[in-house]
Amino acid sequence: MIKSSSKASKNARKREVEQSSESSQKAEEIKKSLLEQLKELTGKDYYVSANKDPFAGEPFSQIMHKNLDLLNQIGYLTQAEGDFLFRIQPYLEFKSNAIICREDKFKRKRKSDIDIEDDYEFPKSATVSDIAGMIGKSRRQTSEVMNSLREKEILLNPEGAGQVIENGRTVSPRTWIVNPYITICAPRKNNVQLDRLTMRLFQNSLKNLKDRNGKKVKLPARFF
After folding, report:
1. Helices (H), the chain
2. Does the pTM of the predicted model rise above 0.90?
3. Burial (CB count within 10 angstroms: exposed 0-12, middle 13-18, buried 19+), residue 134
4. Percent of the chain topping pLDDT 70
5. How many CA atoms lie within 13 A of 199 on its CB side?
6. How many angstroms separate the CA atoms of 119 and 108, rounded?
7. What pLDDT digit, counting tens, does each position of 54-105 carry?
8. Which of 174, 175, 146 is nearest to 83 (CA)?
9. 136: alpha, beta or left, given left = phi > 0 and alpha = psi -120 to 50?
10. What three-state secondary structure class fits 62?
11. CA-CA distances (angstroms) from residue 198 to 92, 179, 205?
C-alpha cells in the first residue's frame, strides 16, 4: 500500500513538471508570434517583460529570530545596545556584515560601471565618528556602546594593514563588523552566501553564554 502511494505521488509530480514545461513552451511561442506581428506592423523591435518585483534591488538585513530571542531571555543586551543594533542595520555591507559609510552604501552605480573590474572601489569602512553621525548619537555614546558590544562578541573590529589619517591622527585602519549570528546582510536561500572571512572571524563567538542563573546556554541557530 505504501509503495503504491509513493509511486502515485511520483507520477503526479512528473505530470506537474511536464505540464509546467508545456505551458512555458506555449507561452514562449505566443510571445514570439506577437512580437513578430508587432514588428511587421510598426517596423520596430519590441520586448516583453514581467512586472518588476517592488522589493527587487532593495537592500535589507535579516534578524536571526531564535538567537535574538535567547539574548532577550537572558538579558544579554542593554537598551542602548539593542537600539544601536537596530539603527545600524541600513549600513551593513552586503555579504561581509561590515559597517560602511552611508554615502557608499546608497551610492548609485552608473550603467557603464557595472561589471567593469577596473572601476571597482571598496566602500569606505565607517569609523566610530562616521557611525555616530549616521545613527544620530554623540561620538562618546557611540564609542561606549560599540566597545560594550565588542566585549559581548556582537561587534568585531580587526585591525587592517597600513595607516590612514583619521581626525588629524595617523592610525591603523579598522573595520567594524556585526556578528552574523544576530543579524545578517546576505542571501540565505539554500546556503549562506556570506563572506568566508566574516564566517571565520565569528565561527567561535557566543559559545559562553549564561542565563540569569549562571547556567550555560547555547545559541539555537549556528549555521557555520
Report:
1. 2-42, 65-73, 79-88, 102-105, 128-135, 139-151, 196-202
2. no
3. buried
4. 72
5. 11
6. 13
7. 555 566 789 999 999 999 999 999 999 999 999 999 999 999 999 999 998 8
8. 146
9. left
10. strand
11. 12, 8, 12
